[in-house]
Amino acid sequence: MIRTVVCEKEGCSGNSFYIYTEEKNLILICSECGDRYSFDVSFCDYVLLSSCCKCNNDTFKIFKDTEKESIYARCTECGNPPDKIYVDEGGTQVSYEQKKTDEIKDLIYRLNEKIEMMENKIDILGADQQVVQQSLGYVAEFVQKNPW
């Protein structure tokens, strides 16, 4: 269920906030009374900026998904989300396209490693099969030469 975040300060019913990200936490500041709230966003692979991506407004309505613990922000003027900056595994700011490209490269690298491991196992099985065939040949020869 998605709920609108509303200021909890007594006497204030503000539902628009200034936002900024500080060390894996999304900080909300009520635009009416100035009360601060903090939400853990360490699971996100991006950082929300303090301005709208379309109209550059700096106040947002905040929505929280109570089941997934996700946070969503929408501009109070135009309804668009704030700008996002994506961060790669090294902590470098990258575009969304670059982040996805890096993820695909990593996936391909891991798949190649698994394929190489499978090829090695197949080679080992092939060598084992030759040993088994030679052994069966020796056993068959022995049985022919030495009937019971």
List descriptors.
alpha+beta, three-stranded antiparallel β-sheet, 148 residues, 1 helix
**Count of individual helical segments:** 1
Indicate the mean pLDDT.
86
Report the order of strands and helices. Answer: EEEEEEEEEH
Strand content: 25-35%
List the helices and strands and how they pair.
Blueprint: E1 2-4, E2 17-22, E3 25-30, E4 36-40, E5 46-52, E6 60-65, E7 70-75, E8 82-87, E9 93-94, H1 96-145
Antiparallel strand pairs: 1-6, 2-3, 3-4, 5-8, 6-7, 8-9
Task: Give a written overview of the molecule.
Helices cover 34% and strands 32% of the residues. Strand 2 and strand 3 form a beta hairpin. The longest helix is centred in the last third of the chain and has 50 residues, at 96-145. The protein is rod-shaped and about 105 Å long. The strands form three sheets. A three-stranded antiparallel β-sheet has the order 1-6-7, with no helix packed on it. Strands 2-3-4 form a three-stranded antiparallel β-sheet, with no helix packed on it. The mean pLDDT is 86. It has 148 residues and is α+β, with helices and mostly antiparallel strands.
What's this, in brief?
The chain has one helix at residues 96-145, and strands at 2-4, 17-22, 25-30, 36-40, 46-52, 60-65, 70-75, 82-87, 93-94. With 148 residues, it is of the alpha+beta class.
